[in-house]
Structure formats: structure tokens, C-alpha cells
Design a protein that fits this description.
272 residues, alpha/beta, Rossmann fold, 7-stranded parallel sheet, 10 helices, 7 strands, 47% helix, globular, binds NADP nicotinamide-adenine-dinucleotide phosphate
């Protein structure tokens, strides 16, 4: 094999099995398709079976295997069932993408009630933790694995009107560091992807609002929001041998959304 081939090979996922939560649409779907394109077989999880089956069919059309396992990640019994089904089919799990999350409320933290807190934390943090624990046990037996947690730029800087969501996403970054530290000696790597606004159903309220959209684009170095496909490359990198010495880290994919810097800049540099 030539040098270029050997280098690209480090991104290949042949003979790997990936489990992706929230795989029926948006970022999770894009990642599931991307991992399959790189050679992985994929276990697809979210609540609605027909949506998952459509993604499984797309993966089958690429020549990889995929199974659709309807799962509510808030429910620990369903998490156990998901991991059992995955093992029953593929025997091992090499890659876990914790991606399914929610933000049921926009507004002041004064208006957050216990139910909103529990719904958000139950999926975004508790769900990520217990799915990681269940899959981590499978990876430990095999002596290798890569876990990719999808957080958000809101986990690093608070998203306005998204207080509890931001707290949950900050928790995901610490979850990543805790698991990376504890599981490194099992050769399980754990990293985070933290996107800015990506055009999905989840963020419709943001990108379909012309004022918020312009504000975001004006304060982003690349001048636009992301498409789901633009999150895939980082996921393949973190899933593959290409990132073999990387763990506990967070990759920001926000198009250079440094609003304070841009605003400061606009006061001292006239626009060209
Ligand atoms: N879009 C953005 O601007 C943005 C920015 C930063 C970070 N993120 C993060 O990216 C990730 C994916 O977001 P997205 O924008 O792709 O969202 P999305 O398009 O709304 O997709 C969410 C996925 O999660 C599944 N899901 C929701 N609740 C679930 C539950 N209780 N159990 C299992 N699956 C569940 C949904 O399927 P079902 O409804 O069928 O269950 C769907 O597959 C999230 O972690 C989000 O926080 C998104």
C-alpha cells in the first residue's frame, strides 16, 4: 500500500460496530451514515422505529449492516435491552455515540420546574452516563473502544434562554473527562464533540428566526450555521485509529463562533 493509502486507512472503520443514539434524524443520522460509509456496521437507537428503519435501509444500501432498536434513552431498562440486542447481533461494540438529547424549554431559569429539569437531565446527562456504563462494560471485555459524546457550545458558554440544557451539556464535558480518566487503562477513549448551531429539527426555533440567525451568522467567523454533514468528519476521526492517542478532549465545531471577540473587533476595525 502507498503512503497515502496507509494514512487514510487509519480513518477506516471496517469490522467495527458503532452504536448511535438519536440516529433517526439530524446530527445522529448524519454520523450513523458517515460511520457506515467509513466501513462500520451500526446499531441505530431512538424512540420511533419507522424513522430508524429508513436510516437502516440507507446503510444497507451502502453494503453495511444496520439494526434499528427503538429505545427511550431516559429508561435504564431500555438501555440494557438496547445493549443486549446489539451484542446479540454483533457480539461487540467498538464505538458509542451518545447523541440523543433534548431542550424542552427556552426562557428564564426562574420558570424551570422540576419536570423540565428531570426531562432534560434524564436524557442529556443520566442517559449518556448509563448508556456509557452499559457499553463501557462490553468494551472493557474486548480491551478497546471509543465513546463520542455530543455536547454543545452551550456546554462551554451558556446558551441564552437554555440554562438547564447548558448545565446538562457542561456535565457531558465533565462526564467525558471522568470516563476518559477511569477507562484509559482499558484502552477505552472518550471524547466530546461540541457543535454550534446546526440546521436540524432540534434547533428550528433558532435558525428559522431571522433575527437570531443573522445575529449568529454575524458573530461566526465562517458567517453561517452548520449542516449536519459537517459534524461527521470529527466523529469518524474520534471513532478511528486516527485519534488513537486522544482522550478526554472536546472538539468545538462552531464555525468560529466567538461573538465577544467579533463584537470587540467591530468597534476597533471598520468593516471591509
Ligand atoms: N442542532 C443544533 O444546533 C445542535 C447544536 C449543538 C449541539 N447539538 C446536539 O446534537 C445532538 C443531536 O441534536 P440534533 O440537532 O440532531 O437533534 P434532532 O434533529 O432533534 O434529533 C434528535 C434525535 O434524538 C432522538 N431522541 C430524542 N429523544 C430521545 C429519547 N428520549 N430517547 C432516544 N432518542 C431520543 C430523536 O428521535 P426520536 O424523537 O424518534 O426519539 C432524534 O433521532 C444533541 O445532543 C444536541 O444537544 C445540536
Amino acid at each position: 500500500m502507498d503512503k497515502e493509502g496507509a494514512c487514510l486507512n487509519r480513518f477506516a472503520l471496517q469490522h467495527k460496530v458503532a452504536l448511535v443514539s438519536g440516529a433517526s434524524r439530524g446530527i445522529g443520522k448524519a454520523i450513523a451514515l458517515g460511520l457506515a460509509q467509513a466501513g462500520a456496521d451500526v446499531v441505530l437507537a431512538s424512540r420511533k422505529l419507522p424513522d430508524l428503519e429508513a436510516v437502516a435501509q440507507e446503510i444497507a444500501n451502502m453494503g453495511q449492516e444496520a439494526i434499528a432498536v427503538p429505545t427511550n434513552i431516559r429508561d435504564l431498562a431500555q438501555i440494557d435491552h438496547l445493549v443486549q440486542v446489539a451484542q446479540g447481533k454483533f457480539y461487540h461494540i467498538d464505538i458509542l455515540v451518545n447523541n440523543a438529547a433534548t431542550n424542552p424549554v427556552f426562557g428564564s431559569v426562574f420558570n424551570v420546574d422540576e419536570k423540565m429539569w428531570d426531562v432534560t437531565m434524564g436524557l442529556n446527562l443520566k442517559g449518556y452516563f448509563f448508556l456509557s456504563q452499559a457499553v463501557g462494560k462490553v468494551m472493557r471485555t474486548r480491551g478497546s473502544g471509543s465513546i463520542i459524546n455530543v455536547s454543545s457550545e452551550d456546554g462551554i458558554r451558556p446558551g441564552l434562554g437554555a440554562g438547564v440544557y447548558s448545565i446538562s451539556k457542561a456535565g457531558v464535558i465533565m462526564l467525558t473527562q471522568v470516563l476518559a480518566q477511569e477507562w484509559g487503562h482499558y484502552n477505552i477513549r472518550v471524547n466530546t464533540i461540541a457543535p454550534g448551531i446546526v440546521k436540524t429539527r432540534f434547533s428550528t426555533a433558532l435558525w428559522s428566526n431571522p433575527v437570531i440567525r443573522k445575529e449568529t451568522e454575524d458573530s461566526t467567523a465562517l458567517g453561517r450555521i452548520a449542516e449536519p454533514d459537517e459534524i461527521v468528519g470529527a466523529a469518524i476521526f474520534l471513532a478511528s485509529e486516527a485519534s488513537s492517542y486522544m482522550t478526554g478532549q472536546t472538539i468545538m465545531l462552531d464555525g468560529g463562533h466567538f461573538s465577544s471577540v467579533r463584537m470587540l473587533l467591530s468597534t476597533i476595525v471598520s468593516p471591509d
